[in-house]
Write a sequence for this structure.
């Protein structure tokens, strides 16, 4: 059966002028406070995204490398920007695919994140091809080993992080937090870490409680416990984007400076051949092709 892959990511505005429309898409039509929009534009401006974005290039590199790894056509589709997931689905169908593997560049499942990608892809395919959707890949050995190599032999306290979500997901039985803690535990074990913890990051001002602790508060409590050096290892993201380059590299770094702490973060996997190899394993499994890795 002819197959193709739809590789999905959150999406990022290509230029500063795109930010209002991009934010509108994220909010799903719900109102946006003008000060929140101004703040978001400013964050992108300070990352140097005036006329073009270096962030989307990483997804394209990953796509091309995964296509070479699998020997199958791979199309990228963004949840909140272009090319849309629906565009990628059409491209997959146009390539003649009867089976489509759907893979998100975010390892942990939540009804508030991955399920939304799935809905968009299902709707776009509209049963014109068989969908093999990967719900999560948070405990994939290649992913765990890659991160373990990034934190092994550090003397610093390792803080694993991931995007926060509204706290109501826990009452709804969502596996998100458990999967994040499991990735963190597996990485810590593989790297032989003794000093590590987990915190959320990138909470949005939506007016409801989000999962905590937030990294900024967490840094304060670590400092109070006598921790002087931290190494941040984001497990809920795989590439350099706003949440890494701003929320960690600017905001958390500033907080650590205030507290007199030494602050570093791991190099993100981005299009690292080992991440691409792992994604290949996950896709082959989904398509039930014997894995060579
Ligand atoms: O680099 C970039 O340009 C895009 C970076 C980016 C990533 C990302 C990943 C996740 N988000 C998740 C959940 C939410 C929820 C809301 C929300 C809001 C934003 C805003 C921006 C943004 N997110 Fe994001 N997210 C990224 C960027 N996110 C910008 C809007 C401004 C702001 O709040 O700062 C709240 C929506 C609402 O208002 O109702 C919920 C989750 C992930 C990780 C999984 C994934 O990648 O899909 C979960 C990257």
């Amino acid at each position: 059966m002819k197959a193709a892959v739809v590789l999905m990511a959150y999406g990022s505005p290509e230029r500063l002028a795109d930010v209002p429309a991009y934010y509108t898409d994220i909010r799903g039509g719900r109102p946006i406070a003008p000060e929140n929009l101004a703040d978001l534009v400013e964050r992108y401006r300070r990352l140097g995204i005036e006329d073009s974005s270096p962030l989307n290039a990483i997804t394209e590199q990953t796509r091309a490398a995964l296509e070479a790894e699998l020997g199958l056509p791979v199309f990228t589709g963004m949840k909140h920007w272009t090319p849309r997931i629906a565009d990628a689905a059409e491209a997959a169908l146009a390539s003649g695919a009867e089976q489509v593997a759907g893979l998100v560049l975010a390892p942990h499942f939540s009804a508030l994140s991955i399920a939304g990608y799935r809905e968009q892809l299902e709707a776009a395919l509209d049963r014109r091809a068989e969908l093999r959707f990967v719900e999560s890949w948070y405990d994939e050995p290649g992913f765990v080993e890659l991160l373990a190599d990034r934190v092994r032999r550090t003397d610093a306290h390792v803080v694993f992080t991931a995007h926060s979500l509204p706290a109501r997901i826990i009452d709804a039985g969502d596996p998100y937090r458990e999967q994040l803690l499991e990735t963190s535990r597996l990485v810590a074990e593989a790297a032989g870490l003794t000093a590590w913890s987990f915190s959320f990051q990138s909470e949005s001002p939506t007016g409801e409680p989000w999962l905590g602790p937030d990294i900024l508060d967490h840094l304060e409590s670590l400092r109070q416990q006598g921790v002087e050096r931290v190494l941040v290892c984001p497990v809920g993201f795989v590439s350099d984007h706003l949440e890494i380059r701003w929320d960690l590299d600017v905001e958390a770094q500033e907080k650590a400076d205030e507290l007199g702490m030494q602050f570093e973060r791991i190099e993100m996997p981005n299009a690292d051949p080992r991440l691409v190899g792992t994604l290949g394993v996950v896709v082959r499994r989904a398509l039930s092709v014997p894995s060579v890795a």
Q: What stands out?
A: The CA atoms of residues 79 and 157 lie 34 Å apart.
